Structure prediction request, 1010 residues.
Amino acid sequence: MKSKPPNPSNGPSSVKHRPAPGWITKLIEWLCAPHLREEVLGDLHERYALRVERLGEAQARRRYWRDVLAYMRPSIIKRQPTVRRFGQYPNPTTTDMLRNYVKIAFRNLSRNKAYSFINIAGLAVGIAACLLVFLVVQFELSFDNFHTKKDRIYQVVSEFHYGAVSYGEGVPLPVPTALRLDYPQLEKVAAIVAGGGQINIYDSKKQIIEKKFKDEGGVYYAEPQFFAMFDFGLLAGNPQTALSEPNTAILTQETAEKFFGDWKEAIGKTINVGNGKDFYRVTGILKNIPANSDFPLKVVLSYKNFLQGSSNRDDWESVSHNWNCFILLPQNVSPDQFNSWMLAFDKKHKTPYQLSRVRNFIRPLDEVHFDSRFSNFSDHTISPEMIHVLELIGVFLLLVACVNFINLATAQAVNRSREVGVRKALGSNRGQLTSQFLGETTVITIASLFIAVLLAQLTLPFLNQLLHFSLHLSFIDNPTLLLFLAVTAIVVIFLSGFYPAWVLSGFKATLALKSKITAKTIGGISLRRGLVVTQFVIAQVLIIVTVVIVRQMSFFQTKSLGFDKETIVRVPIPNDSISRTKFDLLKTQLVQQSGIENVSFAFRAPADKWTWNTPFRYNRNLKETDFSALLNWADADYFKTFNLPIIEGKAYSASDTVQGYVVNETLVKRLGVKNLRDVIGKEISVWGGMKAPIVGVVKDFHAHSLHGAIPPVLMASRKNNFGLIGVKLQPQNIKGGLASVEKIWTRIFPNYIYEYEFLDKSIARFYEQEEQLSILYKLFSAIAIFISCLGLYGLVSFMAVQRTREVGIRKVLGASVSQIVYLFSKEFTILIGVAFVIAAPVSYYFMQKWLEKFEFRIPLSIGIFLIAIGLSVLIAWITVSYKAVRAALMNPVNSLRSE
Amino acid sequence: MRRSDLGEFEEVVLLAVAVLSPKAYSVVIAEELERETNQTVSTGAVHAALQRLEQKGYLTSYLGEATAERGGRRKRLFTVTALGGRIMSEVHLVRNRMWERIIPTIRLEWS
Prediction:
């Protein structure tokens, strides 16, 4: 026999009942079939008690564990088929009780209408915001995900060394062909180039223009390989050959329908692009490009036509952001490996000088949408940080809503203590009560979920308009949405339901029945305070962010740019040899019109989205400058039209070719010349030609958006590069001026479509993204404030009810209304103050980082933070005082009569 | 002998029930077997054997009284049925017959 001497501390006393250890008992209790439960647990218990006597507690415990594990077998777990006879053992967890729970939940909701409204409204708004954020994030993350060879597609991009290193998504034009020759192991190499121009459809004899279509972008030249690499499907035509011949074109279904009515009609028809000589035969119809693609193709033309017309075919140094090249890496070549090949490739093809200027490397397709160093064809990138910020905001808004719920539910708990007491007295255990209250949360959450979906559906059009998206809320197309909603619901239920349920179910039945449960005994006051602080931290951070963005926006709009932008229209003009002959005519006719003050030909407006940068030679130096200057071609009237002051020398005289240069102050500074006067008369040469002296220095103006610094600027008159006219209208006759510009323009260029844009509008477009941000943040902070205030309102109304008697006594003793309102608002004011202490440094840090992106920015002044706290205190006070005043105005007779 | 109907452990449990009757239930049976064999025997194993034996009709059971050390739970007491008794004696006979056929000299060398 293995037994040891009995445990001396227990003595030889008779065997007693001992509680068996821990959760393992619970487990076996749960696992064991009900009809065996009694005997099995009894056995286990008895055996354990016996062993404690004989072997001591520790040993007994170990054996107990082993015993329990030995019981885990199917014959123990298998339930006996039960036939429930009438009146026999009613099971409290069957439908009767569940029905009761649901009934009570609904009764409670309808009894406390304000409470349920606040809860449901808060949650619904929070979930709706979260849902919209999810849609946006999902959309942004889905860009070009549908290409099956996505993970092997890379874009060849450029790194420029003109002074500082910069990046561009374009590559020199010879790169695609050279890559194909040098690396036959590359499965596919495809060049694609953004082009443009008005599209004309001629009659069958190619004589008369039947239809004209404005250049709305979306015109590209691509090699046929492009469609073998990317999964843009063709409705008609062969993707391998559709673009292999020159003078062929592919249209998307949409464009084909626009041009020819029916896309099936389009095949074989010809289109004319940019009023040039080239006619393109439609050889294929492309499926419409999905919104989540960075290739907004509409018309794709044969790349051969582009190459024939380009003078940069063999130029390894010039790069336009429009000239793109994609490759399909073989499976066994890693991008790093290929990048090392690219180094050798660059060395082989470029002269050392070219090599020092432009380097090429590859980046994966899935960075095209997220790398803000580069742009892309859709001109829309979003940084991963931005996406994280969005996600964070979504989570925060949901959190604020949940916090509300917790606060209100725990505050409300007192009112339900009686019910809990009765239920407990009748035999409910804590688990059942918890599940009952969680069930109520579920009812509320599901109700809010439905309202949230409705709300999201209603607000989605506005969001789409704001972000220029075409998102839609469809559970059929987007099953992940359902999953997201389900997960959100579960998270919300547990986050907001668990704590209140735990508190409620924890009431002692005796105390609850005696109505001895008050807000104090529930405790959690500090928790509620903490939660209110959390809410207001989030709200205040959002307020500060909003104020900063709005301020920065208005700074963008009001800062003087150094040139006139009001009442100036920019009108694009055609620039082909025939059109050029009509330039003088256009100008003389325009200037004669009343309502037009000034007219100037130019390549670009003083500030334009796309710029032309090039290094140049100064003062007959053999070497080009190590920085590049922004090149703008403009006629002599440019300075007058845009009111650009010449501060040294004079503007060049009217001429069609380069006779003299005007530079800006920054350029002089970059040349290292101290005195502006010293540069006058020095020769400048661009691209090894166009030698002419500097005749004047123009005062610095913002030739880029305010995101960046003022660049060095080089200007001269060159007719061949004029692309627009800037028309200064008389402020008092803008309408008349505009009308005459259109009339004269269309008379002189009858084959072209007239377009115009006010300069201040085109400049405002630089800040589109910030503008969108500012609206989004306004919305987010409004939501956060709204939800927080709902919560605050709920809390205060609860407090008012709780303290009715106290208020009555105070009033009887002579307290004034304002003193009582102060009593209510004091605590919340302190809480908001605490929230501010947390919110201020956090938002300071982030906004400082955001502002650092801009060369010209507002300072983060104290005023911004004061606005934030002032606003939140004000809003909170308004919320609080409504209830507080009502409580204070109540007649003490009513509140005290109950005593 | 119908070997498949009575496992070795089942046989011992059946014997134990017979020995401890009328106060045979899983705890005392397990304790008894532990004492006899010097092996730890879990109640679970005994319980399973009892369940099987009852299914085969060798045992019958009823719920007995509750005791404090069981946490107020009743115990299931087992008694051997007539069939059980017959099987037991059958097994016993087989064993005995075989024992008697062992040659004594060899038997001595074992111990």
